[in-house]
Amino acid sequence: MRTINIFTTIHSKYNNLTNTERKVADYILDNSEGVVYMSITDLADHCGVGESSVFRFCRSLSYKGYQDFKIALAHSITAENEIPQLTDKVLMNDTMDQVSSKVLSSNISALNETYNLIDNEKMDQAIEHLLQAERVIFFGVGSSLMTAMEAKIKFMRITNKTECSIDSHLQMMSAALMTKRDVAVVISYSGSTKDTIEVAKRAKESGATVISITRFVKSPLTSYSDLTLLCGANEGPLQGGSLSAKISQLYLLDVLYVEYFKRTYEDSIRNKENTAASVAVKLL
Q: Could you tell me the end-to-end alpha-carbon distance of the chain, in angstroms, rounded to an integer?
């Protein structure tokens, strides 16, 4: 872990940066806390430069890439504020009651923001794609894989056409064998995870419809997406896998599930009764 404050590093190397890189540096110095929650595409847009310029800026500061830079930025902000970054609002000296209240508030805020970001037309299109699909394959890695698995388990109670592989190699093979009759639902908070981007790209090349569930309207993932559904949780680089992000993703998937159920009511109710009965013998 780097111990040098990133703001000190930027100032010390500022004169050696190109004019384009200085635009990135200036924006970061003025908006550091907001940058922590931005994708590389968002930052590039705000600075009026290309994504490659942001990447070169990070390399100029000796970071491997944008994510490595954001982690260092988050550490530096934490050091300046002398507040460990547990979540957006929770502090080390908070009482149990304060922690409970703040975590609740954070989750409610994520759900409210996700609700406000819902585009009914896009949701309707997404559901129609799911209805018409021969197969629906959910993709994700890391924490988003758990969300993808939850979606698969939920939908398999009412339809037999959902799939989800837990291995990244198997995910790539599944994407390679998709057709124009299939739908890929790709889940990634950042939209910048390499494995997820490659899966979306391969599914797109195979002719499948790609629906992404992500935080940012512009990201490497959304460039391969036919439809983008936005979740509203803010997650910094030191908060990977936060439950508020997962809850907002699950909320969107739950809306899709309920609407799918409504539009296929007779088949769905029959399948739900059959799947429920199949596991009833496992209960005491």
A: 50
Residues in the chain: 284
Please give the model's pTM, rounded to 2 decimal places. Answer: 0.75
Q: Is the pLDDT of residue 236 over 80?
A: no
Bridge partners, residue 184, by sequence: 137, 210
Instruction: Please say whether the beta carbons of 40 and 92 come within 8 A.
Output: no
H helix count then E strand count, the chain: 13, 5
Distance (Å, rounded) from C-alpha 86 to C-alpha 279?
Answer: 39
Distance from C-alpha of 92 to C-alpha of 90, rounded to nearest angstrom: 7
The 10 Å Cβ neighbour count of residue 194 is 10
Other Cβ atoms within 10 Å of 8 Cβ, number = 10
d(CA 173, CA 203): 10
d(CA 190, CA 221): 9
How many Å is the maximal CA-CA distance in the chain?
Answer: 71
CA dihedral of residues 167, 141, 207, 261 (deg, nearest 10): 100
